[in-house]
Amino acid sequence: MSSETTVRPSSHAAGRDWGRLNGRLLLVNLSILAAPVAMFLASLAVTGGETNLQVIITLGSLFMTFLVISGIGLMRLFTTRYRLTEDRFELHTGLLFRSERSVPIGRIRGVDVTANPVHRLFGLTTLRIDSGDQSDAAARRLALDGITKAEAVELRRQIIALRDAGRARPVADSDGVLSRLDWFWLRYGPLTVWGVGGVFIAAASVFRTLNELQVNPLDLGVVKDLEDRFGTIPLWYGILLAAVVIAVLGMLGSTATYIENWAGYELRREDGGILRIRRGLLATRSVSIEERHLRGLELVEPIPLRWAGGAKLNAVASGLGNQEDNRRRRGLTPPTPRGEALRVAAQALPAGPGLIERKGLLPHPKAALRRRINRALMWPVLIAAVPVGLGLWLGRWLVITGVITGVVLVPVLLAFAFSAYHSLGHGLRDRYLAASSGAFARRTVALQRDGIIGWKLSRTPFQRRAGLITLGATTAAGDGVYRVHDLTESQGIALAETAVPGLLAPFIERAPDRG
Amino acid sequence: MERHDNLRLRPPRHRVDRRAIGWWTLQSALFALPLPLVFGILWASIPPTREFFMWATLISLVPGLLYMAVMPVWRYRVHRWEATDEAVYAASGWLWQQWRVVPLSRVQTVDTLRGPLQQLFGLSGITVTTASAAGAVKIKGIDHKLAGDLVEYLAKYTQAVPGDAT
Known about the structure:
The structure holds two protein chains of two kinds. By secondary structure, chain A is α+β, with helices and mostly antiparallel strands. Chain A is built from 15 helices and 21 strands. Among the domains of chain A are: 19-172, PH-domain like (Roll); 366-422. A six-stranded antiparallel sheet of chain A has the order 14-13-12-17-16-15. Chain A has a four-stranded antiparallel sheet with strand order 1-2-3-4. The longest helix of chain A has 29 residues, at 366-394. By secondary structure, chain B is α+β, with helices and mostly antiparallel strands. Helix content of chain B is 46%, strand content 27%. A four-stranded antiparallel sheet of chain B has the order 2-3-4-5. In chain B, strands 6-7-8 form a three-stranded antiparallel sheet. In chain B, strand 7 (123-130) and strand 8 (137-143) form a beta hairpin. In chain B, helix 2 runs antiparallel to helix 3. At the A-B interface, strand 18, strand 19, helix 15 and strand 21 of A face strand 1, strand 4 and strand 5 of B. Strand 18 (452-459) of chain A pairs antiparallel with strand 5 (97-103) of chain B, so a sheet runs across the interface. Chain A: Keywords: Membrane, Transmembrane, Transmembrane helix.
């Protein structure tokens, strides 16, 4: 294809020959075209063989789109070459926009093996290589999209072996499984929040697709039948029924998501100080986190899960990619019993158990509670004001609805306010800064103090009145900044200065006594 | 922790350039005035809708003018910066305020950005980035020449420190 002029003197014969993507990718790419064809056949079947111009245009453009996608895939198949030499990984791709990338082995931060369902059908996987370059998020991920599983696993082993050979680092003494999926945890599946939203999204997209295909879903036999049967029931009963149906579908959806995401879950510590998470039913994912890059841990307890005594453990690590990638890859455990999450935490970070326990964290000033109560009182007023305001024009029943809404909301939100205050906490634990906050999703974070690369103190007008500040510790890992909410200024500064001595010191002064 | 009764951050040493007030005023004008202007033109040109557009003009104009009058001066009082041989320290914001400290040993890049408006006023903005996605310190509205010196100073220090600054 292209001339081989890129042989480097440094990469001598030990390097392998150029490898290519697997030929089965041809089938994968052609199989993409099956989707629009199937949709066309389906629409013929539903409409009884009649078509019109709009249907043909819709499906035709869909077909063209998929053809282009498939074409791009094929081009990638034919133009991608890669090889591993002793000191670098090289990847050449592209026909029109040719890119030749090469990553020094020592820079590679993570090697993941993932597979989407279609790839799996054909026994293929994707190998992702993460280099530590912070400059350009898109350019730093190298992906070999479509090699056999055996090849991927072997390549990954080689890369890690090569990298660690050049880096005399102590190898972790244990090479064991830290945690493995217990199907009993599936009871937490329905408690993740994705479900209900998912139902609406699914319903909307089905409706839209049917609409595009000139099928009015309200004309379908099934729907007509339902309408005849339930058309005469009272409205409140219908609403109740719909709510129950949506809730049940939502729970099914989130359970299915749980299974898809976490089937086969296993967290193990591997040679060379690597935490490796493997999970996924249809799309198998494998994430490797170097312990060197693990800067802390985060325990997340969103409300339904918290009520059921469940929690989820995330890694705070650098080199997991940009915000979005990080969010997808940071999970160390699925939603599990809280005790299990804490047990895994204690094993994943040798800093000792109790690192992300909320017990023992220092409470925040009472002014923080007042802020939360004020907020809890303000929202019902604002929310109730809308129907009340409209009601002054449109009729009394809106006023009454507004007032009732407000009255109901006040105690609920007040309960949240107290719970949110109760969530607040901070403290220093050995080499870690620990902080906890959150009304709905309570997050408890332990962040390595060495990993803090700057401070960001902020104050809203409301905090200013209450004499509070929010202390943010910026770091290269995880979300980039972890906040300790609502401390007094003095408390915040003292905390920052104790956590990272010397950084803030030149900018601190003692305020004159205000009594 | 022992009791630290009255610690507080002192403001950074240097104010931004006085011309920044002009810059912020112009910026807020570009943001606040087009809508009332459109309403005003409609008010003048379509007599039957006169009353509606009069109110629309006033309602959109008054907050805009207030914003233009208050924000730049307030910002000027808050925005400050300082670079020692150990850290960069900057304060910004007006209603919502922020103080940021980054040690020079963690600085990755130092960029300058001059938008067309800043150029008009002979001003410059500096962004000091670190390995943190949320860690950039921005100092906006300082004199163009001063910004050049500052960048040079920071670049010199950051080069001197080895490591990948994570």
